[in-house]
Amino acid sequence: MRMERGQPAGGPLVRGFAGNGFRLDDVTVASALLLTPTRAMDWTPPALPALTPESFAPALEEEGLEFVLLGTGARLVRPPAVLVRALEARGLGVEPMDSRAAARAWGVLRDEGRQIAAGLYPLDA
């Protein structure tokens, strides 16, 4: 049996880490990122306990999103319950994980064609 990797889903791809930031395609991006299936944006999120759905506003404009990956920095931190409930009320789940794991999950899920958004806090957060 021969296995072949499918066509990539397109959009931004986190290729690695640089210092406390992320490397998108061949560009090093410092600090935090907001990702959608079609674009990557610099992100200046509030401290995690103050995170709201409005913090994701540019990403939530995308049609057909399934859920939001939330990279919480160097370690996993649970997001505020208010945020989780508000996004769930919009039909979106929230999957928190450390930012390195979230960046890797982003690539895998996008290769599967999943329609997701991601907010990645800096690695020093």
Report on this model:
- This protein is of the alpha/beta class and 125 residues long.
- It has helices spanning 57-60, 81-89, 99-111, and strands spanning 14-18, 21-24, 27-29, 32-35, 40-43, 67-71, 93-97, 116-120.
- The longest helix is centred in the last third of the chain and has 13 residues, at 99-111.
- The radius of gyration is 14 Å and the shape is globular.
- The model is unreliable at 1-7 (pLDDT under 50).
Write the layout of secondary structure elements.
Layout: E1 14-18, E2 21-24, E3 27-29, E4 32-35, E5 40-43, H1 57-60, E6 67-71, H2 81-89, E7 93-97, H3 99-111, E8 116-120
Parallel strand pairs: 6-7, 6-8
Antiparallel strand pairs: 1-2, 2-3, 4-5, 4-8
What key attributes describe this structure?
125 residues, globular, alpha/beta
Strand order of the largest sheet: 5-4-8-6-7
Q: Major beta sheet, specifics?
A: 5 strands, mixed
Rounded Rg: 14 Å
Sequence stretches where pLDDT stays below 50 over 5 or more residues: 1-7
| Mean pLDDT value | 89
Q: SSE order, as H and E?
A: EEEEEHEHEHE
How many helices? The count is 3
Proportion of residues in β-strands: 25-35%
Q: Structural class of the secondary structure composition? A: alpha/beta
Shape: globular
Number of strands: 8
Helix content: 10-25%
**C-alpha end-to-end distance:** 45 Å
Oligomeric form:
single chain
